[in-house]
Amino acid sequence: MLRIAIADDHQLFRKSLKLLIDSFGEMQVVLEAANGKELLENLNTAEVDILLLDLQMPTMNGFQTIPAINKAYPEIKILVLTSLSEKETIKAILGLEVQGYFTKDADPNELKEAILKLHQHGFYLEKKLASIIETQVENQANALVFSDREKEIIRLILKEYSGKEIGNELNISPRTVEKHKYNLMAKTSSKNFIGVVVYVFTQGVIPIEELKI
């Protein structure tokens, strides 16, 4: 049973989200908070696997909360909930050290899949938000060049292959797969693999159509 925390200042939205998540059957909301301060004050009372975090909250917003969570509870995966699509906000979001992004106006039924994919694969990027990112973020003049092998690794990860399955497909060891993933994160200056995914979409290295949702 996945243990979920929700931090959002809109009580009606938060309560509705809790009811939805609890109805999925494979996960349960164990903690609710109206802002980052309340969340941090109560995280020691419950074990949490995944945090659904709003960015715009009073007292302590999501941007302020993320570094504190990563420092005190690095094992918690963060799925950012956002309704924002402005260019400057998108750029700010891309700089966050989180594992996933989900827009608030998405189909509620997609949330279960988003949470499960984040738990299983370590990252999640909603296709709608990825499309916004692709169109609104300018290409870098000195964009990185990726080898065919690096692109193969990324494509197979986007197809949700495990490290072992990627190794079998490319005739390399799972350890080599992990080394490739680490090198890709270092190459793109990413803290986790969602950073690599965002980079390859914004720079046109991989077409957005290859994001499996």
UniProtKB/TrEMBL annotation:
Domain HTH luxR-type stretches: 139-204
Source taxon at top rank: Bacteria
Every Response regulatory domain range: 3-119
Modification 4-aspartylphosphate, positions: D54
Any GO BP annotation: phosphorelay signal transduction system
Assigned keywords, A-Z: DNA-binding, Phosphoprotein
PANTHER family documented for this protein: HTH-TYPE TRANSCRIPTIONAL REGULATOR YHJB-RELATED (PTHR45566), NARL SUBFAMILY (PTHR45566:SF2)
Protein name: DNA-binding NarL/FixJ family response regulator
